[in-house]
From TrEMBL, chain A:
It is found in: Membrane. One of its GO terms (cellular component) is membrane. Keywords: Membrane, Transmembrane, Transmembrane helix. InterPro entries: UPF0220 (IPR007919). The lineage of its organism: Eukaryota, Fungi, Dikarya, Ascomycota, Pezizomycotina. It comes from Staphylotrichum longicolle. The chain crosses the membrane at residues 20-39, 59-78, 99-127. It comes from the Eukaryota. Signal peptide: none annotated. It is a multi-pass membrane protein. Its main location: membrane. PANTHER family: SMALL MEMBRANE PROTEIN-RELATED. Pfam families: UPF0220. This is Uncharacterized protein.
TrEMBL record, chain B:
Its main location: membrane. GO terms for biological process: late endosome to vacuole transport via multivesicular body sorting pathway. It is found in: Membrane. Keywords: Membrane, Transmembrane, Transmembrane helix. It is a multi-pass membrane protein. This is Vacuolar protein sorting 55. Pfam families: Vps55. The chain crosses the membrane at residues 9-33, 72-91, 103-123.
Amino acid sequence: MSEDRLWKFRRPEWLNSVWARNAGVYAAGGLFSLAFYILLDSAVWSKSALNGSSIHITFVDWLPFIFSSLGMLIINSVEKARLSADSFSYSGSGVAWKARVVLFLGFAALAGGMAGGVTVFVLRFVVPGVPFPAMTMGVENVVANGLVGLSQNMEDEYSYNLAL
Amino acid sequence: MPTAGLKTIIALSFVLAVGFLLVILSCALWHSYYPLLVVATYVLAPVPNWICSHCANPDDFVESSGAAVLDLGRFCTGFLVVMGIALPVLLAHSNLITIPAMVMSVIGGLLIYGTIISFTMFFQEEQEF
C-alpha cells in the first residue's frame, strides 16, 4: 500500500472518518450561505440610502452566481462511484462516459460562474473607475462566486478520494 | 434521573427565554422588526436535517443514495445556521437596523439555536426507543 504512494506527507487518518465528512458538509452549506448573503448584501446595499452613486445591482450581477450554483447542483447530482464503473459488468452502455460528460458540464458552469464574476467586476467597476464605497458591490460579487467554488471543493474532497 | 432531567429542562428554558428576550429587545428598542427573522431561521434550521433523516434508508450501503439525502439535509441546515448570523449583519450593513441591534439579535439567535441543539442531544434516547 505504501509503495504506490506519491507524496511524502500522508493525509491524517481523522480526515477519513464519518465525523469529518459530516463537518465538511455542514461547512459547505455554511460557505454557500455566506456566498449567497454576501451577494444579497451588495444588492440590498445598492438600494439603500447609503449608496450615493448611480451604480445599482441588476440581474447581470446575479448571473455568475446563478451559473456557479447550477454547476454545484450538477456536480453533486452525479454519482461519483460511476466514474470508474465501466469495468463492472452491471453498468453497461457507457455510464462512466456519461458521468464524465455531465461532470465536465458542471465544472464548466462552476468555472464559468467564477470567471463571469471577475468579468462583471472588471467591466462594471474597475474600468469605469468606481470610487470605493460602491466598489464594494463588485468585490462582493467576486468573493461570493469564489466561496461557492470553495464550498464545492470541500464537499467533494472525500468522495473523490473514495472514487479515484 | 428525573431531578437532573428537570434541572436540565429548567436551565434550557431559561436560556431560551433569554435568547428570545434579546431578539425581541433588539427589535423593540429601535422600532424595526427585521431581527425577528432570526428566530424564524433558527427554528427552521433543524427541520431539513430531521426530514431527511426520516427519508433516508440507513441500511442502504451499496448505492449510497440514502447518504446523499442525509447530506442534502446537512447542507440545508448549515445554510440556515449561517443565514441566522449573516442576516443581521446584512441588515446592519445597509443601515436597516443599528449595530447594537445586530449584536443583540446574533447573540439571542445563537442562544436559541444552542437550546434547540442541546435539547435534542439530551433527550434523543427517549425519542428513539
